[in-house]
Amino acid sequence: MTKKLFFLASGFFFVFSTVFAQEGEYEKIKKEYESFGYENVIQLSDNFVKQDGIADSVLTDVYLMRAVSFYSVGDEISARVSFTEILKINKNYPPNPAEISPKLISIFNEVKTEYMKSIEPPKVESDSLKQILDSPEFLNEQMRQSILRNIALPGWGQLYKETNAKGFILSAASTANLVGMIYFIINTNKKENDYLNETGKTLIQQKYDDYNQSYKTRNILIFSYAALWIYSQIDLLLSSRSNSIEESSSVANNFIIDHSQNKIWLGYKISF
User: Cα–Cα distance between 187 and 196 in angstroms, integer?
Assistant: First the structure.
């Protein structure tokens, strides 16, 4: 019983002394930091952060002091490492603008962006897209040429691949939209200059209205062209996939085996 009490008391004493020692070291670091002794902060905290059993809040505070100290002595790389250690403790840690400068907050946000990317799970490619990319139809030369043409002008890929009505419509709409967009981009710049250089009070409002109308039209055309471009790329990929499936089904259905008469019949389908 006496031995148990001795070991228990020894354990409590060890824990208490360790905590007390850590608190003393922390106060020394904080005192040096508050007196701008950045070199001393770095030296004193080197061993402190390697110890076990330090509370997360204390460790975070020390790493923040280290980051500021490193940055103050011109070592931005080590400051970034200290910010990373803070994020390992708490990835949602919010820096206080009252404690560190806006420049350091900017660096912290950069480090956080990189850190969050490093811990994000890899994005899994959707099955449907993977099937499209892996399909023989996607890998053949005609499909590659269609994609390249479609990137250059929406609808050109469909027109090259299948020469269907959709290809004609998308190509015509994209061409008209592109021409209009280029015209209104140039026209908007010209009218903006006319408006800014106008000195006559009676014409300023008119010049502004002309510029504003051209500006709105330009933005509408840019948005519509972007929508056409995205739709055309998706349509080309999906149509390629559906064609592959239809061809596979057609091949399977065109072979009819009659085991009773040991005959193989070949059928053909013609779509209208």
Answer: 14
8 A C-beta contact, residue 267 and residue 254: yes
Measure the CA angle with vertex 117, ends 89 and 45; round to 5°: 30
User: Which has the closest alpha carbon to 237: 146, 119, 110?
Assistant: 146
For residue range 179-225, list pLDDT tens digits in order. Answer: 989 999 999 999 888 888 888 777 888 888 888 999 999 999 998 88
pTM over 0.70: no
Tally of domains in the chain: 2
Q: Tell me whether residue 225 is in a domain.
A: yes
Residue type, 133: L
Q: Does residue 100 sit in helix, strand or coil?
A: coil
Judge residue 72's burial from the number of C-beta atoms within 10 Å of its C-beta, 0-12 exposed, 13-18 middle, 19 or more buried.
Answer: middle
